[in-house]
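User:
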Amino acid sequence: MSAIAYPINEAKAVERPQALRDPDWVRWSLTAVAVGFIVLFLCLPLGIVIIEAFSKGWQTYWSALTQPDAQAAMQLTLLTALVTVPLNTVFGVAAAWAITRFEFRGKSLLTTLIDLPFSVSPVISGLIFVLLFGAQGWFGEWLSAHDVKVLFAVPGILLATLFITFPFVARELIPLMQEMGSEEEEAALSLGASGWRTFFWVTLPNIKWALLYGVLLCNARAMGEFGAVSVVSGHIRGLTNTLPLHVEVSYNEYDFVGAFASASILAGLAIVTLILKSALEWRQARR
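Assistant: Predicted structure:
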């Protein structure tokens, strides 16, 4: 039986999806709404922060940032990030490795606990540390007897920030390492490579962009955390005020230039974070 050629409706074969056949006014309206929201809720607030920070000139802006309290707040914020980000990076890599490469009792519980800070309010997180290390807390009497200060001191700020930020690295690595599988690592081990050599030469190159992405988000949250740190810090000027807390204190004392000057530093960090985040996402998409 001879084959019969049927004419193909070329117009139907190349028919565009419905979304691409919407009228121009629909597409332009949706674009205008999206741009309007971005301008209203993102660009405008950032613009106001910058304008208010420089409202009395560059010298006043610089003077506000060089005050001892502002300098102490910046140093404490940097110290908090320098301590918490490396610790959370080590924990995130170790947790992701354990969850994706081994089977053990409590694995699902560990995964749930990693997500816990995402579901608990930062203020409640700070209150947990007050109940643990406060004067009337579980360990308060022992700490007082040994003259160890946790609350209203740097250790309390570090603990609260660690709790808030520890999921970020792990949550970026776990899905990626599950998708990667362990075939390449098993091959390296079968060829005689040690565990550490396999990690540094096989695993790490495959997860490096996701790792950097998680570290970036962890650092941004560590520098910008307010709720939990506010509860455990005691708001001691020059000692336990991080940069976000310094912004609040300055604004409440009607030092608007000082408040917006400090806020402009945090806004700049946020913009840099977004730029680096977009660059890492673009690099991951290319890979």
